[in-house]
Write a structure and sequence with these properties.
Length: 626
């Protein structure tokens, strides 16, 4: 609701602003919540405008209300009493929503995967004369829940967005669209105007598809132990790509030109039959496609029966059959990271994008702040990305023919980075197994050849450190990122790439596990204190802990071997490598050995992993001794 209300409060002419909410679950509770939110917005919007309230997300505003002062001509006391009134309305809004939820708790009449389309122009329930009297025009709020049937593939978020594109195409058909995930809100009400500065710039406008703002988050702790900020994207890569043809579409927080989802920048008009093949058979939708005709006033009001029928058709699950939605038009279906692949397609088609990162975050979201969510999300991302990497759309081939080579390399770097898991897993096992067996695989410390290895190792660390520091972050961030990179590479990237290979050869269907949106108090406390929380699946824990135990064992055996038998010269590099890995993954050791709280690594997992690493060691040693 906060996403919706903060978007309605954007500083933009109300008549030109339409807020659509996509409810993929098709829940009557959400629809009811929307009506309540609309009622609340009737109070909230005028209040924000009158007193120049900067934080227009109600939840955030009331959380930090002491710091947020109203400006304008009105006296403090008037502001205070108005604020109090609005706060009461906010409390009432929350109460009514939770009451409604309680009343309908047992309702099992609807399921998230099987429901008809529902499209409603939300009007609110309470007609309050006082508010009505002072009523300035409000942005329209439209609830859209596309049809879902178990027999149809729904293409996750991209499918939902395409349904929104079609429905909004016959209701408002605005040429520019802001896309926000349900866990984000507008933090600066001027973002629309700022984005329009780019879109309306005659030097950029022709080929400009989207203005991307970074994803920033309101719930990240000082230490950011899980690298939830994903700094390397929004503080390094996106800036680099901005110097080429622009950053990758990042799923949320961007203003996109509707037309760019329909055709190439150079493409001229096509005939009706061709359009129907691309966009489906809705005449109403095609009529408005190129904005020559805006939806008329009466359709706009949203209550004509014909319009209702049309929107239901456009949001039905059979509508896309035989069309090019998701393949040539709209958001792309090929990969679960629809954002990456849609951005890639746009750039291949000749569109450009712009990255804009003003000091005040324009949008704030909820980041994944526990290991479990992080790894689930990481698995989905690496599965989606590597699927593109190993397909015919591999950016190095498909992309390099359609965009500047450097740009295609950027895309390739992202699509292929999950495959880093292969070398990482080798680095975490082979030198260690050799070390235990006293086999040296690196040059001796005394040989000058060692310089080459040291140079590569240290320069890659320095490059990373430089990126972190140059983007205004600390050495602590560097350490966190290294650690999370190791953890992800041996867990979610492994599963992600396996998943991608399996879907590619048809052994699995793609899936989209949404990130958890509910907080656990104890977990949050640990997170704030910078303590890892290992409450996650054994599938994630076991590989990670196994590798740490293997490194511990090899380090101890290696050092003992050198002390008793000598040979430190040859084995030095391997000992250093094990030490480096152990130092970086210290929280895992701590979770295994030292901690007793709920977030520790369970004993059973440690025992299992110890067996696994022993097995790995024996197997490896057996192989080496052959
Ligand atoms: O079947 C689905 C699944 C998801 N969503 C929506 O997709 C959005 C993102 O889902 P979330 O669970 O928050 O995933 P995240 O991993 O946090 O999302 C990141 O990764 C996605 C790609 O995997 C991008 O689309 C997002 O913009 C990006 O923030 C949410 O608004 C969901 O409502 C749907 O509408 N239908
Ligand atoms: Mn999210």
């Amino acid at each position: 609701m906060n996403t919706v209300v903060s978007a309605m409060a954007l500083d933009y002419p109300a008549k030109k602003l339409h807020v659509y909410l996509s409810d993929d679950g098709g829940s009557p509770l959400t629809l009811n919540g929307m009506r309540e939110a609309y009622d609340f917005a009737r109070w909230w919007l005028p209040f924000c405008k009158r007193y120049g309230v900067k934080t227009r997300c109600p939840k955030a505003y009331f959380r930090e209300e002491e710091d947020d002062e109203g400006i304008g001509m009105s006296s403090e006391t008037e502001f205070d009493s108005e604020k109090q009134k609005v706060k009461e309305k906010y409390e009432l809004f929350k109460e009514r929503v939770s009451e409604h939820r309680k009343r309908h708790r047992g309702d099992s009449s609807h399921t998230g995967q099987d429901h008809p389309p529902t499209i409603e122009v939300v009007r609110g329930d309470v007609i309050d004369e006082v508010v009505q009297a002072h009523q300035e025009p409000m942005p329209q709020l439209i609830y859209v829940s596309r049809e879902k049937r178990p027999s149809h593939h729904h293409h996750f978020k991209a499918g939902a967005l395409n349904a929104l594109l079609r429905v909004s195409g016959v209701i408002s058909n605005s040429p520019y669209i802001l896309l926000l995930d349900c866990d984000m809100y507008c933090n600066d009400h001027s973002s629309a105007r700022q984005a329009m500065c780019f879109h309306l710039d005659p030097r950029l406008s022709r080929s400009l598809s989207l203005v991307q703002f970074p994803q920033r988050f309101h719930n990240i702790s000082e230490n950011d132990i899980y690298d939830s900020k994903i700094r390397s994207y929004f503080w390094t890569c996106w800036y680099g790509m901005d110097g080429l043809k622009g950053p990758i579409l990042s799923g949320t927080c961007f203003y996109i030109k509707r037309e760019s989802l329909y055709r190439k920048p150079t493409q001229e008009g096509s005939d009706l039959m061709d359009l129907k093949k691309l966009f489906g058979h809705s005449n109403e939708f095609i009529k408005h496609l190129w904005r020559k005709e805006k939806p008329s006033k009466d359709t706009f009001a949203g209550d004509s029966a014909a319009l209702r029928k049309e929107t239901q058709l456009l949001a039905s699950c059979g509508y896309e059959n035989g069309t090019k939605w998701g393949q040539e038009v709209g958001f792309m279906y090929y990969s679960v990271v629809e954002d990456y692949f849609t951005g890639f397609t746009l750039h291949c088609n000749g569109w450009t994008s712009v990255f804009y990162n003003p000091p005040k975050p324009q949008f704030l979201g909820t980041a994944t702040t526990n290991l479990n969510d992080l790894l689930i999300q990481g698995t989905r991302w690496s599965s989606g990305l590597s699927k593109v990497g190993i397909s015919r759309f591999c950016p190095l081939v498909y992309g390099s023919l359609r965009m500047p080579i450097l740009q295609s390399m950027c895309y390739a770097q992202l699509a292929l980075f999950p495959f880093y898991c292969l070398p990482i897993c080798c680095f975490a096992t082979i030198p260690q197994i050799c070390l235990v067996n006293g086999i040296s695989i690196y040059p001796e410390v005394s040989s000058s050849y060692i310089m080459l290895f040291a140079f590569i190792f240290l320069s890659s660390l320095c490059k990373h450190l430089h990126e972190v520091v140059a983007s205004g972050h600390t050495v602590q961030t560097f350490l966190n990122e290294q650690r999370i990179w190791m953890i992800k590479s041996t867990t979610s990237h492994v599963y992600g790439t396996i998943d991608a290979v399996m879907t590619q050869i048809g052994m699995r269907r793609a899936s989209f596990l949404p990130t958890n949106k509910v907080d656990d108090d104890e977990q949050s406390k640990r997170y704030e204190m910078g303590i890892f929380d290992f409450q996650t699946s054994i599938l994630f824990l076991a590989p990670m802990v196994t590798l740490v135990i293997l490194n511990m064992a090899s380090f101890i055996v290696g050092v003992a071997r050198v002390l008793t038998l000598g040979g430190g010269d040859e084995l030095f590099m391997q000992i250093v490598l094990s030490f480096f890995i152990l130092a970086m993954t210290y929280p895992v050791i701590e979770g295994m050995v030292l901690r007793t709280d709920k977030g520790r690594i369970p004993r059973s997992v440690t025992t299992l992993s110890a067996f696994l690493s022993l097995a790995l060691l024996l197997l490896g040693s057996g192989f080496l001794m052959r």
